[in-house]
Each structure stands twice: as structure tokens, then as C-alpha cells.
Amino acid sequence: MALKDLIASTSELTEEAIENLIKDYVRYDVEENEVAFLPAASNLSGRQKLLVYLVALQGWPIVAKGQEIPTAVKPARLGERVGIHGGTLRPLLKDLKDRHMIATKDGAYSVRAASVNDIKAELEGGAPTRRAPKPTRPATAKGTQAKAPQKGASTKATPAGSKPKRKAMAGKAGELTEKFNRWITEGFFDTPRTLGEVQDRFHEQGDIVPRTSIPSYLLAAVRARPARLVRKKADVGGKKVWVYTRPA
Prior knowledge:
The protein is α+β, with helices and mostly antiparallel strands. Helix content is 39%, strand content 13%.
């Protein structure tokens, strides 16, 4: 092996490599310059979702040629886009950085080109994770025995291969889609609505949906045949944004 074989650069993040990592979880909204999560992303862990989003950012130079869209992101914006904040986000970023899967420069995070294979393994659930230290057993007086399990306490382990959490998340995504489609039928979109107004509607009903997930519901309704929603640019607060309404 020559030294040149040890060189890693962002050129390793080819279009094919990026697509293979993110195709099941995100889509690019080139008009809004946003990475939109698909409902399938709800099955990802927080760590996996961070990696998918950071990898997707590396695709902007390919998807939106000629536009200067940042491929690194600061924690506050990253947390908003991925739906992970504060005390949960910081440990995840530190863990990924310590494992050399992401890098930071001037406070902004991006994936490392040399970590493509490690990221793939992480998304497939095969990457090694740090184990928390085993709790120390409190010392007992000499001659005493450890307390036996209480009567009736369950000692059965979770069956191997079961994924109740993922099933629950997938069910939640389906419930949100059904609720969104019901709003269309009930007339919520008879008045043009912005992406922010749709997110507020979810929040009003107790569903904390990250902003990056909202386009997946809107665009699915726009692309349906026949279309359930149409969109056009409108001036909102002095800024041109997309608004969505029912077809006339």
C-alpha cells in the first residue's frame, strides 16, 4: 500500500455513496433548500438520524449545482432540523466526534469522508457502541446473601429480534399521515397554508413534529394523482415562500 492510498477527501463522498446512505430516509427540496425527512426516518435512532442528515448535506453541491448551500451545520440548527435538542443532542455529537465519524470546524459539524464505511455500518446497526459501565454491587455484610427477586417479578428477557420500539414509531408515523390527510378533507387547506403553519397545527394537537419532516407530508399530497394539494409562491412577511392549498 502506498501513502497516497491513505488519503481521504470529500471526493470520496460520491453521488452514489451519498445516495446509498440516505435514499430511504430523505429527499431534497431544492426550491426551499431543505433536506426533508421521509416517514421511514422515524425508525432511526437519534444517532442514525444525525448521520443521515449530515451525509445528506454533502449532497447539496451535486443536487443544487451553482448554489452555495452549507455542507456543515451548527448544533442549534442541526437540533431544529433533526428534532433533537439540548441535553440529548450534545452527548450524541460528542460520541460521534470521539469515534471520528464527524468533524467540527468553527462550531459547525460535518461528516468525515474517511468514515463512509463506518457510517454505513452504523445505519445498518452494526457499528460498535460504547457500553455503560456495569453498576457496582453494594457490599453486603459478611454472611448475608443477596436478596432474591421479589415474588411475581418477571425475569424473562426480551425475545431476540423483537423491535417493539420501531413498530411503535412506524405506527406513529402512520397516525400522523392519517391526521394530515384528514385536515385536507376537513378544509384546513381551503386557505393557503405555509410549512410553518402546518407544523404549528401539529404542535397544537400535541404532536411535536420537527420542521424537516413537514415537507414529506406536503409533497406527498402535491405529487398524488390526482393532486390533493397544489402549491405556489406567495409573499409572506416580505419573503417569498411556498404556500399549499386544495385544488380549485
